[in-house]
From TrEMBL:
Signal peptide: none
Name the UniProt record assigns to this protein: Acyl-CoA dehydrogenase
Alphabetical keyword list: FAD, Flavoprotein, Oxidoreductase
Domain (Acyl-CoA dehydrogenase/oxidase N-terminal): residue spans on this chain: 2-125
Protein's organism: marine metagenome
GO CC terms of this entry: plasma membrane
Domain Acyl-CoA oxidase/dehydrogenase middle: 129-223
InterPro entries: Acyl-CoA_Oxase/DH_mid-dom, Acyl-CoA_Oxase/DH_mid-dom_sf, AcylCoA_DH/ox_N, AcylCoA_DH/ox_N_sf, AcylCoA_DH/oxidase_NM_dom_sf, Mycobact_Acyl-CoA_DH
Record-linked Gene3D superfamilies: Acyl-CoA dehydrogenase/oxidase, N-terminal domain, Butyryl-CoA Dehydrogenase, subunit A, domain 2, Butyryl-CoA Dehydrogenase, subunit A, domain 3
Molecular function terms from GO: flavin adenine dinucleotide binding; oxidoreductase activity, acting on the CH-CH group of donors
Named cofactor requirement(s): FAD
Length: 340
């Protein structure tokens, strides 16, 4: 406990010295930081914040230091997040690479892949997207048909992915491909890392009714991918896919339990105080107070459950799906309270 208090003091001092003033203000969508080769920073201090956090490894605090991560344990990571929340610091980096891919590279990747990709992910130098769903395989993901043929030193990839978030802005894609067409569908899938700048890769935005969309179709037309980009053994991609989905669902279930003053991480109590006042108006109504109190109690209980599940570890299971469902419902309730 004494060491944890000392760490807390060190974190607080570092943040006071290194977190720029504008980063402690409510985040607006156009100033979100996703990094990448062609990253644009509306707020110059966002780049400064990313560089400083990336250098400390605190964009990925629990990843090993030897690959650029923070090397923190669970308790230290919790302290870091609490201190970031205390000063209302914006996230230094939004990253599918950190949230989903990096843990899988740590578990299934070889040493070359870890040293090649993890430091760039942690510092926000490369932006990743996820290539899972296809026009004919959504809920039945294992029926995917994008194929990767063995061509000696390379795989030749042909096929299409759909609903690929931010594919038009991503530098690399982690994708499920079929390498064993004669194998049972779950056994013939491999997990490939593909540079989006490779000849034959193209994207097409999917227009939504709002006129804006993060989603794209992604096409692979005779794309040559080096075999060194195969994560894990050939035809063992389904195991990695399930593990990655577990990380994705755990991230979604956590979404909103931490964060800045606005957006999905906004604290309902602070929002209520800011817009409704502490004693007058709607906030004085017992029903509103009860609703907010109930929401906070459930949030705290859910946070403790997530922490306990993390401490227990374990293999990919239905638990992560349950967390995703409950986390989504919890955040839905958050927004309903905000507009009540």
């Amino acid at each position: 406990m004494e060491n944890l208090e000392l760490f807390k003091k060190e974190v607080r001092e570092w943040l006071e010295e290194n977190c720029p003033p504008s980063i402690r203000t409510p985040l607006v969508p156009e100033e979100e930081v996703w990094g990448g080769r062609n990253a644009e920073y509306v707020n110059p201090e966002s780049k400064l914040w990313l560089d400083r956090m990336g250098e400390k490894g605190w964009t990925a605090p629990q990843l090993p230091k030897e690959y650029g991560g923070g090397g923190l344990n669970r308790d230290e990571t919790k302290v870091l997040h609490q201190e970031l929340f205390r000063i209302k610091a914006r996230p230094a980096l939004n990253s599918f690479g950190i949230w989903m891919l990096a843990p899988c590279i740590i578990e299934f990747g070889n040493e070359e892949q870890k040293r090649e990709h993890l430091p760039k992910i942690i510092k926000g130098e490369i932006r990743w997207c996820q290539g899972y769903s296809e026009p004919g395989s959504g809920s039945d993901l294992a029926s995917l048909s994008t194929k990767a043929e063995d061509k000696g030193e390379n795989f030749l990839v042909n096929g299409q992915k759909v609903w690929t978030s931010y594919a038009d802005k991503a530098d690399w894609i982690f994708a499920l491909v079929r390498t064993g067409p004669k194998e049972p569908k779950h056994n013939g899938i491999s997990f490939l890392l593909i540079d989006m700048a490779t000849k034959g890769v193209s994207t097409k935005p999917i227009a939504l009714i709002s006129g804006k969309s993060p989603f794209c179709e992604t096409f692979f037309d005779n794309v040559e991918v080096p075999k060194k980009n195969l994560v894990g053994a050939e035809n063992s991609g389904w195991t990695i896919a399930k593990k990655l989905l577990q990380h994705e669902r755990n991230f979604i279930s956590n979404f909103g339990l931490t964060g800045g003053e606005t957006g999905s991480g906004a604290d309902v109590v602070n929002i209520a105080k800011k817009y409704l006042g502490e004693d007058n108006g709607k906030i004085a109504h017992p029903a509103h107070r009860d609703s907010i109190t109930e929401h906070k109690m459930k949030e705290h209980a859910f946070g403790l459950t997530l922490q306990r599940a993390g401490d227990e570890g374990g293999k990919a299971s239905a638990t992560s799906s349950m967390f995703k469902y409950y986390g989504t419902e919890h955040n839905k309730n958050r927004y309903e309270l905000m507009i009540a």
